[in-house]
Amino acid sequence: MLNVIVFWVAAFAAVSAAIRVITIRNPITCVLHLIVTLIALAVIFLQLSAEFIALLQVIIYAGAIMVLFLFIVMLLNLKRDEFEPNPLRGIRVVGLLVGASLLAEFAVIFAGTDASLQPASAGFGSVESVGRAFFGDYLFAFELTSILLLAAALAVVVIAKERKLVHLEES
Amino acid sequence: MTQLPVPLENYLILAGILFVLGVVGVIVRRNAIIILMSVELMLNASNLLLLVFARIYNDIGGQAMVFFVLTVAAAEAAVGLAILVSVYRRKGSINVDGLNVLKG
User: Fold this and answer.
1) Do residues A133 and B61 make contact, with C-beta atoms less than 8 angstroms apart?
2) B64-90 pLDDT per residue, tens
3) Contact between B80 and A154 (Cβ < 8 Å)
């Protein structure tokens, strides 16, 4: 019974905060609401016996990635009238239409889902079981992620570096 | 915990709603930072689906996949925000309607 209440509270928090993310004009408020969504999702991850992933969700997503967003929002320091200078009216109708049709499509797909729940094995979702998957079946992909992160870090340095506006031919 | 607290469909519908909100955010908003945040929302919805089905089929591979999605999301956010900073320096605005040239 308590689990059911926890699910509905977390789901309501996630969806209402997500709605605010896409409707509020101020980017900082949007980032804070997205953090609420992520933490509510972490609670739901816990219910799905994914303890390690819930931990990562709070530490990496809500902690690191969202702080990066917040940092950039504050770095750019947008004026109030630069938040959304030119809102197009027609695009909202298009967005609502696409969203409604996509939601209907999901409803049709998910209504046909017929998967029976297997009982979770002991320790499912613990750090040990996920770690065994990383260094067993998914070792190659796991090592590739380090290359991905290295490439991303290098790319960020190169892209965000202050460049002088001099072409090579002229210098 | 052998039983999910609420029926399976509720998790799927929650993931669907979050994904749709992300799509609508990408379409409707003009602020590039908020568009990136909507993409994060979609990635989280897909993470939720992966975890639900990892739990249903009792397969730890789904959780490993969520970790990889998380890594890709981190890389995507970092590179995307770096591009935004670069764009802001050049044009003084991050409104995506103003971005109409490829050459920096």
Assistant:
1) yes
2) 999 999 999 999 999 999 988 888 888
3) no
Residues of A in contact with B56 (CB under 8 A): 115-118
Q: Which of A150, A165, A101, A162 is nearest to B20 (CA)?
A: A101
Distance CA A14, CA A36 (A): 7
The token pair at A85 is 């200078």
Residue A51 has pLDDT above 80, yes or no: yes
Query: CB contact, 8 Å: A49 with chain B?
Result: yes
CA proximity to A113, closest of B8, B14, B45: B8
**In chain A, what's the furthest Cα-to-Cα distance?**
73
Is pLDDT at B104 greater than 60 in this prediction?
Answer: no
d(CA A137, CA A147): 18
Mutation for testing the B interface, residue in A8, A31, A74, A110 having most B CBs under 10 Å: A110
Phi and psi at B31, nearest 5°, equal -80, 120
